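The instructor's notes for this session suggest beginning with a concrete chain rather than abstract definitions. Hand out the sequence below and ask the class to guess, before any prediction is shown, which regions might be ordered.
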Amino acid sequence: MLRRFPIVPLLLISSTLQAAPPQVPGQSYAKDIQPLLKKYCWDCHAEGEKKGDLALDAFADEAAIWAGKKAWSTVQFHLENWMMPPAKKEQPTPAERLTITHYLDLLLNPFDPNKPDPGRVTIRRLNRVEYNNTIRDLLGVDARPADEFPEDDTGYGFDTIGAVLSLPPILMERYLSAAEKVLDLALPLGAEDLATKFYPSSAISGNGVLGSNGRASVDHTFTEEGEYVMKAKVWASQAGPELAKVDLRVNGEVFGKFDVKSADEKKPDLFSVNFHAQAGQKGLGVSFLNDFYDPNNPDRNRRDRNVYVLGIQVDGPLKSAANPTATSQKIFAALAKGATTEDAARAALQNFANRAFRRSALPQEIDRLLTMFRLARKKGDSFREALKLSMRAVMVSPYFLFRTEWQPEPDNPEQVVDIDEFSLASRMSYFLWSSMPDDELLSLAFRKELRSHLREQVQRMLRDPKARALSENFAGQWLETRTLQVVQPDPQRFPFPPELRQAMQQETREFFWFIQQENRSVLEFVSAPYTFVNERLAKHYGLEGVSGEQFRKVDLPPSSLRSGVLTQGSVLTLTSDPTRTSPVKRGKWIVENILGIAAPPPPPNVPALDGPDKAAIHGTVRQRLEQHRSNPGCASCHALLDPMGFGLEHFNAVGALRQDDNGQALDTTGVLTTGQKFSNARELSDVIIRDKRDAFVRNLIRKTLTYSLGRGTEAYDRPAIDKILAAMNAEDYHFQTLVIQVIESLPFQKRRGDAASPASK
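After discussion, reveal the predicted structure:
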């Protein structure tokens, strides 16, 4: 029986399909396909029978099938995965099944092999990880400002998809704040950049004249907390046996005492103190401490001791006097020599904008930045502050925040071009590093030599520690282990302390990184007889001889049921329910993430299985699921999902080995819809590598293309995927072969225009 639900084919139907049905070379529906359908499907889906609301005899030709693409995608899905005909019915031979599914695939997902289509990548905003890494590599600062940004949306399982990376208003505000913060860290101000406020005597209480002990003061508003310097210009009319004495105070607190030696208004003493102040208004004052008066002194000029405050100045807040970062020193090489000319500013801005825009900044762009610089200087900003204002403009520019690519005739879908080498450098670096191109990539792109050095650059980039971004970002989303952070197993049944959660995520990262660095076969993602553990995780797995927090590679014993990612704690935990294992979730994870089959959603109002407290009454999870799938509306989908999940039942809800299910014997055998049998998790991995190898590798290629391109794969990507698969078959499935072939592929190297939007017409 065919249930009614939407199925997404393995290669998504293109949004640009023509209205007329395509032709499948060498085959026709009436001659080659309909006779097979009559033989195996007509009993339930024709001549008055309409199970699953599907009547196949209602479709007489290719035009009718084309009009009913959604229903026929469902037919293709069920036949392709051996979910139909029902097990008790006569089955097509493998060759007959392939004939039908291949025909439907070519009909429903057409592409022209003689007219390669690289597709079109939507302009892409930097996601949070890419923004943080780009800031790190652009300015060399240890900051993660994007951690405060809103969460990124995802599409096709990844947060690199241009179509879903929108720009809400609050994010623009965060960009402005982040730019100011990181530039302050990268380019600390010097003494010439201090904010200064001078108060003349006319602004000071009593016009700054102190004829007796007392204080001359002024109120000053501190805009931020920090370290400040207070200075006072003072002279005194001297009288008596000692010099006039004063102190400098902030809000009444004394920060320094001084003797006033100057008796000349034109050459006053300059006193200064350093102090820490909170934001807000505070009084700054000079206090006269030792008034003296002798009316009988014959020298009239020596009868009265008075103090005169000519001005009070406050400087600050003082910024760090630390040197700029090594990265920013390269950007501001001209400034390091003390140059403060407009030419120096232009050179610094050109260097900075080139790296920030990931291409050569245009002369008119630099001119606009210099206009901002000049306006800031006219308003009194220091050279460096004015420069930083222009740099902030760079960091909120669309050319920094978005990855844009030059496209001649952007509204012409027939126009296919090589992406320019700057765009290629960005595609490579954000794919492998989740960050901007480094100087070597940009230099090669500037000289138009990147394509001629492509493979050596890919190998160099994969050796770089920044390539760990693949294990953290690509693998974390492909395998869904990022979501382990929010998984909450029942603490009573399955204690899951933070250090165990962290160790599980690290195991998967180290495992992926090892295959990547050692250029191992990608088949080891499924079949590897080794893993990476520290003492905490080894204890959880029951492995001996591991001590300490350091992760290390361990070979699994021959008797172990673990192999590859399928049996790693991260995957087993995130595919469980809080109180029990979930063979359905585990099977669905394998079907979708390993084999690339888009599992259908469950029908509405499906009752949940009883909790583990009722397991003793109703049997093991497997037994309860088998009762559940006796419903004909559920059987076909569960036949696809459940067997693979049953193969992992030796592991509990947090990935530890177990011998029973709530005291009842485990049954971990399974039979796939395609007929393969296995008895445990390790044998399941063997079946996948032996009999479903191409499905796994093809899915990994599609996932890698989706992540690296920032768009989902389409029907027209099939030639590129087939070519990558053939290369991997020929080169023992090495990881570097996958990466190099993806980067050299048509969709990675080229782009086409798109149909003009109504607004552009």
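Then share the key points. The CA atoms of residues 205 and 216 lie 5 Å apart. The first strand starts at residue 124 and ends at 125.
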